[in-house]
Design brief:
9 helices; binds fe (ii) ion
Length: 168
């Protein structure tokens, strides 16, 4: 194990106990998923990739960047946005809103701003953490599109969310 999984999970847990994060479950994502499930899946995948690649990462910044990468807080359908328009504009919106609520480091800002690269060509990922979130996001999104019936990560995310919501 290259990185501290306990530390990573405790950072995720902290975020999953925050009502501002929990409310992301109101916003739909690809095919039956929602933004909270999606972000948990991306966070888990990003850590798995770091381990596979044996990349030493900053656990806190990766956890926060992954969990906040889609913190744009609107429904794409209700806003009437095309996939392209949403794809190009939401990283900036997510970064600004997340910075306002969570006071981000420069690396965390870039993780969010760069996650759609190369679509947002002028904003590439500039750290290992940002590359991991960008890759994990594409991987999770592809699974959400391709196999809506097999979303293991989504199910785990929902279980965690339900557990937290039960506690409230
Ligand atoms: Fe995104
Ligand atoms: Fe995403």
């Amino acid at each position: 194990m290259t990185n501290d999984k306990e530390l990573y999970d405790s950072e995720l847990e902290k975020l999953l106990n925050d009502p501002r994060i929990i409310r992301l479950c109101q916003f739909p994502q690809h095919h039956g998923s929602n933004t909270l499930d999606h972000c948990v899946a991306v966070a888990r995948r990003a850590f798995e990739l770091a381990e596979k690649l044996e990349w030493k990462i900053d656990e806190k910044e990766l956890a926060r960047g992954a969990m906040l990468h889609d913190y744009y807080q609107y429904s794409i359908k209700e806003e009437g946005l095309t996939a392209y328009k949403h794809g190009t504009r939401h990283p900036q919106i997510a970064m600004e809103k997340a910075d306002k609520d969570f006071n981000l480091t420069d690396k965390e800002k870039n993780i969010i701003r760069g996650h759609m690269w190369p679509l947002t060509f002028a904003h590439p990922p500039k750290s290992k953490e940002a590359i991991l979130v960008s890759l994990a996001d594409k991987d999770v999104a592809a699974r959400e599109f391709a196999r809506p019936e097999i979303r293991r990560a989504g199910r785990i995310a929902r279980k965690i969310r339900d557990r937290i919501l039960e506690k409230k």
